[in-house]
Design goal:
Blueprint (H helix, E strand, L loop, with lengths): L4 H17 L19 E5 L6 H14 L7 E5 L14 H10 L9 E6 L7 H11 L2 E6 L7 H7 L4 E5 L5 H7 L13 H17 L10 H24 L4 H12 L5 E2 L1 H10 L6 H13 L3 E4 L6 H6 L2 E5 L5 H4 L7 H15 L3 E6 L5 E7 L5 E7 L5 H14 L7 E6 L13 E5 H5 L5 E2 L2
Parallel strand pairs: 1-4, 1-5, 2-3, 3-4, 11-12, 12-13
Antiparallel strand pairs: 6-8, 7-8, 9-10, 10-11, 13-14
């Protein structure tokens, strides 16, 4: 714990100088969408171990490539035992220390501050707002989901911060990480390249996109991912919200992640707990689900409806943040490739900024996703790993056609893992797309 201003200044100076003189780390470039609004801080959020700190360094590297000298960039991590007990009143000394080292930057040139794990300092929000108002700087903030959740940043920064969400690797980012990212559009690739992509997609659906999990053997990967989940539940949910029934939370997680891409009803789960003699209120269960979503462990989507009541009374479909988590909780013994593919498609839709729901048609069919993109386009998307039979293809198409009776402006699309047999046929108003092409955002389609 720090005891004097001189000790604080010494640590500040050491960390600033070390960060400015260290070599830029070699890292896989991330495709994270950034809001382009002047005068706002950028809060980098996301699940633990998804790569938020690495993304801060990527942003710094982009500035260097654009010509900003290293002395104009300040990376500072507050996750340091020497800074334990730091208070908001001590944060001003960080700014003073930087400008004492580089006085030529004060007011004359625009510096950029990258403050990592700043949520460890109580009252950091007031400092961040004042920094934006009083100094000629761009401000980037990042931290664990425990104390820097999106809605908390929005409220504590009083509209002064926008968010960028870092997720585990997308399929393209994973390919980039292992050196297999295509340099051409999908339809221009060779047959050998298509086969390699199909193999890599199988690996991606199984191992997921957490950076540290890439290339690990199955046992090591499962141990790593289980540790991620355990730490998240303990720190970001149980301790943070002071839960009195942590076992109920763990049962819920098992239910949710053990049925990836399945529907989940609070009412049914409540009834199941009641039958076991577990006394817990429905409101508490709703809170637990929201805590898990706030911590980025999972995403739930509601039924497609203009009625708020319909969205509330119908079950939600639940997806883990990463396909690699499915095997940890699924007890069926099956490969669950279809559920993993559906999960991958959902997260790519979210990365693309779409509002996503699922569709229950008048005829009693279900379509996996209705997506509304930022530009107003709509899509009905059905995901199927195996359409090797005409019966399967017919069933999937029937659901899409029935949904289009309600959603007439939506483009209908069937995303499949493997190319269909040549003797299968489908209507011209349904686009059939290979998942490897769609996940790369190259909309390659088959046509009759």
């Amino acid at each position: 714990m720090l005891f004097s201003d001189s000790q604080i200044d010494s640590v500040y100076t050491e960390k600033i100088v070390d960060a400015q003189t260290r070599s830029m780390p070699v890292m896989t470039r991330r495709d994270v969408w950034l809001p382009q609004v002047q005068g706002k801080a950028l809060a980098v959020i996301g699940m633990r171990r998804a790569g938020k700190t690495t993304f801060l360094w990527q942003l710094m590297a982009q500035r260097v490539q654009a010509g900003t000298p290293r002395e104009g960039l300040v990376y500072f991590s507050f996750e340091d035992e020497r800074l334990a007990g730091l208070q908001a009143s001590d944060l001003d000394r960080l700014v003073q220390t930087y400008y004492r080292l580089h006085p030529e930057w004060r007011d004359q040139r625009r510096a950029a501050f990258y403050l990592d794990e700043i949520q460890l300092v109580p009252g950091w929000e007031t400092f961040a707002r004042r920094l934006l108002d009083s100094e000629n700087i761009d401000l980037y903030l990042s931290g664990s989901s425990a104390r820097m959740l999106s809605r908390e940043v929005a409220s504590s920064m009083r509209g002064r911060a926008l968010e960028a969400t870092v997720t585990p690797f997308s399929f393209r980012e994973m390919l980039r990480h292992i050196g297999h990212e295509p340099t051409q559009e999908w339809y221009k690739l060779t047959k050998a390249s298509h086969s390699q992509l199909a193999h890599d997609l199988d690996q991606y659906l199984e191992q997921g996109g957490f950076p540290e999990a890439q290339g690990l053997d199955t046992r090591s990967r499962h141990a790593l991912l289980r540790n991620y989940v355990d730490v998240l539940l303990l720190r970001d949910v149980i301790e943070r919200h002071n839960l009195s029934q942590p076992q109920v939370l763990r049962w819920m997680v098992q239910q949710l992640l053990g049925n990836a891409a399945g529907s989940f009803s609070i009412n049914k789960f409540h009834a199941d707990l009641k039958s076991r003699g577990v006394a817990v209120g429905k409101d508490t269960l709703h809170q637990l689900l929201s805590y898990l979503e706030d911590a980025f462990l999972l995403t739930s989507i509601s039924i497609c409806s203009s009625s708020v009541r319909q969205k509330q009374v119908n079950p939600r479909k639940v997806y883990p943040v990463d396909t690699g988590l499915i095997a940890l909780f699924d007890r069926s013994g099956k490969a669950n490739t279809g559920h993993a593919l559906e999960c991958a498609v959902l997260h790519q839709l979210l990365r693309n900024g779409a509002e996503v729901s699922y569709v229950h048609t008048p005829g009693g069919f279900e379509v996996d996703f209705h997506a509304r993109y930022p530009d107003g386009r709509e899509a009905l998307i059905q995901v199927c790993a195996d359409i090797s039979s005409q019966d399967t293809l017919t069933r999937e198409i029937r659901a899409l056609q029935d949904a289009r009776k309600q959603l007439t402006q939506a483009h209908a699309q069937l995303i499949v893992l493997m190319p269909p047999p040549s003797d299968l046929s489908w209507p011209s108003d349904i686009e059939l797309t290979l998942a490897s092409a769609w996940l790369l955002n190259d909309q390659m389609s088959h046509s009759n």
